Amino acid sequence: MGTIAKQRTKQSKTKRRARKLQSAPNHELVIAALRRTEKPLTAYELLAQLRSRGISAPPTVYRALDRLISEGRAHRLESLNAFVACAHPHQGASAMFSICRDCGTAEEFSAGAIDATIADWAKKAGFQVDRAVLEIRGACSDCGRSRTLEHA
Predict the structure, then answer these.
(1) Are 45 and 56 in contact (CB under 8 A)?
(2) 7-47 tens-digit pLDDT
(3) Contact, 56 vs 93, CB < 8 A?
(4) What burial letters (b/e) apply to 88-111, b meaning 16+ CB within 10 Å?
(5) Is the pTM of this model over 0.85?
(6) Cβ of 114: how many Cβ atoms within 10 Å?
(7) Domain match, 69 and 5 both
(8) Half-sphere exposure of residue 12: CA atoms within 13 angstroms, side-chain side
């Protein structure tokens, strides 16, 4: 195959991928946008990113986020009123996040001991837990290192 033919084939594949993304259901566009960033995004930040893909109204973004959260594919960070893609399956466990106060990154993690403590407490209290989201705010290792160097 000649060079021009290869370029046309590549351009054709790129156009097909773009059309596929544009015709993707709204929730798939939203989860793709969440996965492209390390920082939590508000619904309006998502809307701004997805306007060129045909999503033009806040209710559309909120419906997509509700679906993704109910499917366990996204989480709402209550303290930030923002959303992140789920980093790993929970299977009934709590969602836990470290949120950097300086750079804004949010990292999801799991801790079986914390899950067990929540489950034990709920059982003793007769409390039925729908969901548990733990948010820990502080400085990530990069920002903490930068602060240490500034004060040295």
Answers:
(1) no
(2) 655 665 555 555 444 446 999 999 999 999 989 999 999 99
(3) no
(4) eebeebbbbbbbbeeeebbeeeee
(5) no
(6) 15
(7) yes
(8) 6
Q: Which two tokens stand for residue 104?
A: 């804004």
Shared domain check, 38 and 5: yes
Task: Return d(Cα 144, Cα 146) in angstroms, integer.
Answer: 5
- Give tens-digit pLDDT for 71-126: 889 999 999 999 999 987 766 668 899 999 999 999 998 888 898 999 999 999 99
Residues 2, 31, single domain; the answer is yes
Residues 103 and 127 in one domain: yes
Residue whose tokens read 């989201």:
133
**Domain of 25: which CATH number?**
1.10.10.10
Domain around 103: 87-152
Q: Which of 54, 85, 78 is nearest to 136 (CA)?
A: 78
Residue 61 sits in the same domain as residue 103: no
With a CB cutoff of 8 Å and minimum separation 6, the contacts of 95 are 75, 86, 108, 131, 132, 133, 134
Q: Is residue 34 within 8 Å of 71, Cβ to Cβ?
A: no
